[in-house]
Sequence to fold (835 residues):
Amino acid sequence: MPAVQTVKPDSILHEIAELWNNMTRPQPGDAPEEYSSGSLRACAMTLIIFINDEEDPRALDATLEAVMRAHPNRAIVARIREDGETLESRVSARCWMPVGHHREVCCEEIELTASLSRLIDIPGIVSPLAAPDVPRVVWFRSPRLERAPDISGLLTLADKIIVDSDRPGAPTFADLRVLSQAGHIVADLAWTRLTKIRELLAHLVGDAGPGRVHHASIDYAGAEASAGPRYMQACLRSEMPQIDVDLHRIDLPGRGELKAIHMDPALNIEVKRNCAEYETGALRQRANLPGCADHELLGEELGIMTHDPVYERALTRMSVWIPRS
Amino acid sequence: MSQEPSLQDPLRFHRKTPPCAVVIFGANGDLTKRKLMPALYRLAWESRLAPGFAVLGISRTPMSNDDFRGAMRESVAKYLEDSPFDEDLWKSFAQGLFYMPGDVADHSTFQRLADCLKEVEQSRQTGGNALFYLSTQPSQYATIAEGIGAAGMAKGNGGWRRIIIEKPFGHDLTSARELNARLQKVFDESQIYRIDHYLGKETVQNILAFRFGNGIFEPLWNRRYIDHIQITAAESIGVEGRGGYYQEAGALRDMIQNHLLQVVATIAMEPSATFSSDAVRDERAKLLRSIHVMKAEEIADNAVPGQYGPGRAGGAQVPGFREEKGVSLDSQTETYAAVTFLIENWRWAGVPFYLRTGKYLPKRVTEVAIHYRSAPLAVFRNEFGENSQAVPNLLILRIQPEEGISLKFVSKHPGAGMTLRPVSMDFNYGSVFGERSPSAYETLLLDAIIGDATLYTRQDMVEASWSVVQPILDYWSTQKFPFPNYPAGTWGPAAADEMLARRGHSWRRP
Fold:
């Protein structure tokens, strides 16, 4: 019978220390001044990510690479395998040279590979690996966790929990509401995708006088509304309780995404790929809607380490959502 | 009472900006092309501008609206930094650009402008809000303000009216007062936004966050712990074809009277009770008024002018200032200035603030170096030698480039014995907040549209800083200096080193 694999947090921390010693050891010719070359270790938080082991690592790499520039972090990537008794670790550093600077910035990354059966060991390993005195954020990307026997230990790791309802296997809205009501800071990237469009809507409605709006309808494309239009409906219902908000399927191919918002009196916003076109009064305008790549969504959430009352109110309305059409 | 429903989300949304028209005088000028229009476009790109936003440009060049849009498109595409140029967004943004040719010396221009502005207000639904941006020769500021007033544009019909002027605010104390008086005949002080783009820099703003957002530094921020402070704004280039303008200004007027004294105010001001615009500016103004105004007999020892001569800079041989185009062969204009200021209040009494700025210095760097007093007892003198007191702690606030903060302290060298070595603990602004910082003009334009004047200078601040600088200007104007007194590519004249040496200090080499 093969020996059970173990991972010792102390060994990983030692590996990290060694990694830094090697990277920051002065090289011949290095200047002692603060403008000298060399590496700068940066860490503003611990980001713990659960993904499926077979997920293409390039997509996550690109996301981490980009998000670390805005939120340097110690990344702990837990790759979850379906079978076996695996538990392994690997330490590396991710470095980049900011434009116009002379010194590269580096963040460390710890990769853990664990099978579902060993998931129970993860909290005990990750907890001592988290950087002290900075926030800990857990991003659940693995649908496999749905079938994990008990993830309560994982939840205790986090100051903030991030999910994405637009990905398969995401927790239900009811689950999120339970977590939120238990005091966890919860975020859903499906909600984050709406920020720019919500901001545009808030400004336009604010200019028109929100009290004048008495009806809103939200168009989505595809067979069933995805999380986005449903969140938008919940948000309008919670923030503007005096108005009726309908959800309408329009005859376009799609995956349930938000296509347009119509408000009475006249305000129409058509949502396109990276922009929105809107009509208000006699003006027809275009607004940029950047920021829907994973790293941008994640970056926005990592910038908010408190409870988000607007989201939490919308989430409450999501749990009692009943489709009208 | 029922609350008005709102879709606002302060955690995630930017501050809401009201619709308005920005009226730019000097719309065909360099500042508009290089800074203002790229900043406005970038704000549009980030959806920071209200739907009814408009720009109405004025200059003498005959142009149609479409010509103006074409010229601005070219400038934005060329000078936009760290941002993509989006053709579709530009088309939408350009719908709000308008142009009116006109000479500000002609009174009828302002009446035509008033009519034009009304049309823009109606077509763009700006709600009567207008921001006048004077991107012209400073000598035209008062004339333009009076023209705006005479045409009835200083007061909006239901909307607000504001005016932005660029430095210099006068070329001495008297002219600054005169300009203020003429501006204030037309505009209330609350409508006047005097731009000092240094205050819009993220890292200058970060000084306030550093000082007043942390509990550990402020107790050490006084004469008891700080020995002296050095503020350096060094440029590695010369006057770059602006010799004619620069000859009339000089380093003291161009940098110290405005930018560097504002940095001094930010470094040395008392904490304000709130972060409201007037509370912060009250403290800045109070500090500027506390700076000792030198008597004529104190100036030679505390203020050093310099002018670069030929030398090697940036790996090339460069001409001296007097050989630059538009500069007279016997010019007495200083391209370098170093001044020792003393602040007469309880916090700073006796602490010298050394300021220096210059053209063609060895590197481009702006920083504040806070030199702490040495430890009261040199316990490790044997390890450092008798001169161990010469290793004081140093806090460096780097404003540009490589924005960040460094703390220098001594540490034990690993190994046997008690060998100490100075080390540096660095915070790099760009590496912790890797996202793009808005340009100073984006910040300041947005603040003016929103009506937040915190980062703008006020009349009393302008006059206080001129009061400090005026005696030096007066004294220097009576002297004939042996210029040039430093070769291009060096750290300035020897007299600047001697100025510090008299107090037992020396300039830090950044």
